[in-house]
C-alpha cells in the first residue's frame, strides 16, 4: 500500500522542493508524512537513519512513531544516529527541520530545541482531536497560518508533557518561540500549555500533535488543518 | 525524615527489551566493554515517623504487593543513608 | 549429562517418561510410541505433548469446526480458507485481505499488560505470515463486574498492554468491544484481531518445499518463555541440579516486532521466501512441523544454532519455547544472502538453522546428535480427535422459562426517562472513550472510520478509494440463553454493523470462548454455537475463513457465559461513500428500519434495571438481515442516507442516544402507532437500524424500502439539543452526555 | 565481572506523576506514613575488564550524555558490591 499519487508538482506548483522524511527503526508516520508532502505539492525523499548524506534535500521532517521503541527515553537513542549528525549540522546552518511527536522528542534530546518531553501527567497514552492556537506564524513551517489562528489536528502520545525550567520558558515566551499552544483542556500537563516550539531562527520547529494526519478530508478527523505545515515550508523554499 | 529506596528489577529470566535497546546502542555511541544492561525502577520513599522494624516490614509488604509485580519482578528494600 | 538421543531412546525402550506431567493421556502416549515404533526421545515427547494439546490441536473442537468447511457458502472471494495462519479473501482491484481473531485470555489474567500485549503481537505475526502488511487491529474484550476491585487491576493493564503494543507497531486500532459481566471475573476474555492487505500474487503460505532450501529463524533470541511444563523433561534428562528458573510470563517487545514487520515486508517485496510461518504457540515445534508437513519433503534442523537469550536452555526447552517476535522462513539457497542482508539492515538477528531435505522426516540435531526423527504430519496434524460427550444442561429449560416479559416496567414518561439514563450510563452501555482514547486510531493515515463507529474502516488504495471494514460482536448473555441463536445473533450484529457503514460483508472470522470441554453442558453450548454460526454463515453467504477456539475459560467449576465473538469483514469500493453514526444535520428525518417486537430476554434493560438474565434471546431472521444490509449499502452508495446506526443491546434508545451525542444534535421522536413506548425504546429485536435521511431523499428512500419489502417507519427528525420522545419525556443532550461519558472514568480512576 | 549501578531520578523541581500516582494509591492500600514518593530508573551495567578510574569515568560520561537527560534528570554512578 504505497501512495503513488501526485509526486510531481502539486496544487501549489512547488514540486521542485525536496523534503526528506527520516525513518529510524520504529518510526511509524514516515509514509503518512511523505503523502502529506506530496499532497502539499512537494517531493518526498526517504532518508534512512544510517544515511551519511542528506540527498540534497531542502528540508527535513522527523516523523512520529516510537523510534527504538521509545526505550530509555523517547528520542534518546535516535539522536545518536548518523543521519542526525547531518541534520543537526544542517539545522544550525538554516535547514528547515520539523519534528512531529517522536521527531519533537528527538529534537529536544539533540538540544536543537530546549526543554524535554516527559510522560503525560495522567500516565496514559492519549489519542484525540486536539485544538491548538498557532502562536507564531513566522517560522518555516507555520507561515501559511495566521498568528492566533486555531486549528485542530490529532494528538497521540504517551510522552507528550513539555517541560523546561522557568528561565527557558520565560525566554521562549519573550522571543515568541512558543509556536503552538493547546486550547481547551491541557491534554498532558505541558507547562504553559505548550504544544510546540521553534528555535530562534524559526527554521527548526517541533510539536507533539500530528499535522500529517490532518491533510485529507476523508481520513482521520476529516479536517485538513495540518496541510499548512507542508505548504509553509514549500512557500518559504520558493521565496528563499 | 528517613528515606527508603525500593529497587525493582525484572527477574533475570524475563526479557528486558529496554535494557537490551540501551545495550545495543552503546557501541554506536563509542562505549565498549559493557557486557549487559538491565533497566529497572527505583522508588524513593520519604517515611514519616521512626524507621523501626515494623515500618520496614510494612514497606517490604508494600513493595511486594504494589511497587513490584512479583510475577515478573524482584525487588530490594534498603534504607538510604 | 546424558542427551536423550534417538539412539538412546532405541536402546532404552523402558525408560520412564513424564508423559502424564506433560498433559498426555495414556492412549496418546501409546500412539506416539506406535507412530515412532519406539519410545519418543525427550525432545520428541516435548513436541508431541505441546502440539497435541488442546490449544494447538483443537482436539475437542475439531469435530464441530468441520462444519465451517462443510457448510461453507460458495464464495468467489475466498482465496485461502481455514487451515492456514489466516484466511484470505479477494476484495477486488487485485487486492487480497487477510484477517483473524485470536484469544489471549489466560495470560491476560495473570499479567494483564504483558498478556494483552503479547496477544496483539501474536495475531499480527499470523497476518504478516500470510504475506500481508498489517493495517489495523481490533480488540474484543470482556471483564468481570465493572465495580469489582480486580477489574481495576485487569482492565487498565489489558488496555495499556494492547495500546502499548499496537500503538508502538503503528497499527490503528479501529474497533473492538468492552463488556462487563461477573461471569468473566476470574477469567477475562482478551481477544485480538488483525487485518492485513496484499496483492493477490503476494500471498504466502506456511510450507517447506524444495530440497536444499534453507530454514531461517529470524527475530528475537529464544528464551525460556512459556515452557512451564517441559521443565520436568529438562530435570529428567539432565543429571545436574535443577534447571534455571523459567519465566512464568512472557514479555513483549513491540519494537522488535515492528522491525520484524518492516523487515519481512521488504523480504516479501523482493520475493525471497518460498514458505513462511510465524512462531506462536508451541514455538519451533509448531513452526518446523507445520512447515515440513505442508511441504513436499522433510526437514533437518541443527537446534544448537538457534540464538539464545538464556544459554541454560535444554534442547527440549528450545523446541517448546514460546518466545515472542520470531518468524521462520524457507529460502532458496541463492536468495539466503540477500535475505540475511535485509535482516541486517533492520537490526534483526537471522540464522540459518537447517534445510529442507528430500526425505520425509523432520530431523533435529543437537551438537551433531539426533534427538528428533518424526513424520512431521504426525506432530502437526494427526493429533488426537475427541468426540466429547455433550448434553443440554438441565437448567436450560428453567432459564428459558424465566421470561423477562414479567419484569416490572415503568408506567410513566418520567419512569421511562429515569431508566433511559440508567441504561446509557450503565458500564456496558456507557461510552468507552476512556479505553479507546488510549489507542492510536490515526496512524498509517488511512483510517476512515474507527470506534465508536459501527465498524472500523480503512482505505487500502488511496488512488481508487477502495476500503475494507471490520466489526466484531458477541453477546454472552444471549448465547447463555440459547447458544445456537446467540452465535447467530453475534454474526448478524457484526454483519449489520459492517453494512451500516456502507460496506458489503464478505467473510467471517471468529473466536470461540467457552468453559471446559470436559463439562458436557459446556460442550453442548460449544456444539450449538458452532452449528448456529455455520448455519448462519451459509445463510448469509459469508464463509468462515479462520478463527480460534479458547476453552477452559472458567473459575473453579463455573464456566463463563458461552461467548462466541464474530468478526465480519466487508469491502467498500469507495470509502467516500461510508456512512457514519452521527446525526449531524438538523432537519434530516430519522427512520427506523425493521420490525420491533417485544423481545427483552437477555436485554441490556433486563440486566441494568433488574439484574435479570432469563427467557429467550431475540429471534434471528437472516433473510431479513440480508435485506436490511442491501438497503443500507444501496442507500450509502446512492447518497440516500447521511447517517446510520445499527440497533443491538440497549435497543432503539441506546442507538438514538449514541447518534445524537456523536453528532451533537438532538431529536424529536414519535412512538409509532401500535407500539408500546417501553417496547419501542428498549426491545432488542434484531434486524434493525436507524438512519438519517435528507428530506430531498425521502421519497426515493421510501420507494426503495417499499419496493424491496423492508419495513421503514419515520420516527422523527434531527432537531435541537434535547432528545424528546413525544408525550413521554425530554432529555437534554448535556445531561445524557454526562450520564454516558462519566461512568467508565469514574469506575477506573 | 563488575556491576555498576546508575540511578537516574527526575530533578526535584520536575513534576513526577508516576511517583505521585504511587503515593496517592498508598492510603487506599492501607499504607500510611509515607510523606512522598519519587520514581526513577535504575540501570545495572555488567562491566568487562578492570573497573579502574578510566572505566568509571567512561561510565560517568555515558550516564551524563545518554542514560540521563540532564535537562530534567540527575544521576548517580556507583559500584555494586
Ligand atoms: N473457531 C474457528 N473457526 C474457524 N477456524 C478456526 C477456528 N479456530 C481455529 N481455526 C483455524 O484452525 C487453524 C489453526 O488455528 P490456530 O492454531 O489458531 O492457528 P495458528 O497456528 O496460526 O495460531 C487456523 O487456520 C484457524 O483459522
Ligand atoms: Mg499461525
- Largest sheet: number of strands, sense, barrel closure of chain C: 7 strands, mixed
Q: Which molecules are bound in this entry?
A: adenosine-5'-diphosphate, magnesium ion
The helix/strand series of chain B, from N terminus to C terminus, equals: EHEHE
Number of helices of chain C: 26
Oligomer: heterotetramer
Which CATH architecture of chain B is right? 2-Layer Sandwich
What global shape of chain C is seen?
A: globular
What gyration radius of chain C follows from the Cα positions, in whole Å? 27 Å
Q: Average pLDDT of chain C, to the nearest integer? A: 94
The number of domains of chain B is 1
What characterizes the major β-sheet of chain B?
3 strands, antiparallel
Radius of gyration of chain B: 16 Å
Task: Give your account of this protein's structure.
- The complex is a heterotetramer, with one copy of chain A (240 residues), two copies of chain B (81 residues) and one copy of chain C (749 residues).
- Chain A has 240 residues and is of the alpha/beta class.
- Chain A has one domain (14-239): Class I glutamine amidotransferase (GATase) domain (Rossmann fold).
- Chain A has five helices and eleven strands, in the order E-H-E-E-H-E-H-E-E-E-E-H-E-E-E-H.
- Chain A has helices spanning 30-40, 82-92, 102-109, 166-174, 227-239; strands spanning 18-23, 43-48, 59-62, 97-100, 116-118, 126-134, 150-157, 161-163, 178-182, 194-198, 204-207.
- In chain A, helix 1 (30-40) crosses helix 5 (227-239).
- The longest helix of chain A is centred in the C-terminal third of the chain and has 13 residues, at 227-239.
- By secondary structure, chain B is an alpha+beta fold.
- Chain B is elongated and about 50 Å long.
- Chain B starts with a strand and ends with a strand.
- Chain C has a seven-stranded mixed beta sheet with strand order 8-10-7-11-9-12-13, sandwiched between helices.
- With 749 residues, chain C is an alpha+beta fold.
- The A-C interface holds A 1, 3-5, 25-26, 28-29, 31-32, 35-36, 65-66, 68-71, 124-128, 154, 156, 158, 210, 212-213, 216, 218-221 and C 133, 135, 160, 163-164, 167-170, 197, 253-256, 258-259, 346-347, 436-448, 459-463, 465, 575-576.
- Magnesium ion is lined by residues 85, 126, 278, 280 of chain C.
- Chain A: Its EC number is 6.3.5.3, 3.5.1.2.
